[in-house]
Amino acid sequence: MSFPNEPLGEPVAGSDRRDELDEIIRRLVQSQPYGVLCTQGESQPYGSLVAFSITEDLKHAVFATPRATRKFRLLSECNHVALVIDNRPQFPDRLMEIEAVTATGRASLVEEGDEFDRWAKLLTGRHGYLTKFVRSASCGLFRIEIVRYFHVSRFQEVRQWVP
Fold first, then answer.
1. Which end of the chain is more exposed for a tag (fewer CB within 10 A), N or C?
2. 15-161 architecture in CATH?
3. pLDDT tens for residues 1-27?
4. What are the structural domain ranges in the chain?
């Protein structure tokens, strides 16, 4: 459902609309195991495919990356990120049915300890094949504090939601 009178950049007003968009976003991010992490550095944008998990309240995401990568270096230099999640594989021939969500926020490296264990469990609970990798010394675990979501449907209908 679209709300054409709502200006882009403004959060969805009204609890019914917020609840509806919350559930649409939740369904989409829970149904897709991978997203594109967008970083920036050296005056260039950069996109990387990542396996991710998002908290139930949709306020945080977590992913892992090798430390010896451009992605890790760019995240260390600039913490502003976007995570793009879409359902293209489900609708290869029906463009108007594809939905995408862009979650914007700030990424931070999770240090060893209780917090690391909690975030690692969230990620490996969804992606069990990453357990050994996440626990390796060559891996960095990042948490994204999500500031807002942009939901796109029908190729051009955009709504914003702030968790």
1. N
2. Roll (2.30)
3. 333 333 344 444 333 444 599 999 999
4. 15-161
DSSP symbols for 9-42: TSBPPSHHHHHHHHHHHHHHHHH-SEEEEEEEET
Which SS3 state, helix, strand or coil, does residue 75 take?
helix
User: Which residue has tokens 């626990």?
Assistant: 135
**Tokens matching residue 127:** 């992606």
With CA atoms as reference, report the closest residue to 55 among 17, 79, 83, 77: 83
DSSP symbol at 110? P
Listed in sequence order, the residues at least 6 apart from 72 whose beta carbon sits closer than 8 Å to its beta carbon are 65, 66, 140
Q: Which two tokens stand for residue 58?
A: 């949709």
d(CA 21, CA 81): 22
Over residues 85-142, the pLDDT tens digits come to: 999 888 888 888 889 999 999 999 999 999 999 999 999 999 999 999 999 999 999 9
Specify whether the CB–CB gap between 60 and 6 falls below 8 A.
no
Q: Is 42 left (phi over 0), alpha (psi -120 to 50) or beta?
A: left
Residue 51 per-residue DSSP state = E
Beta-bridge partner residues of 84: 36, 102
Tell me how far apart the alpha carbons of residues 57 and 63 are, in angstroms, rounded to a whole number: 17
Pairing of strands 80-86, 60-66: unpaired
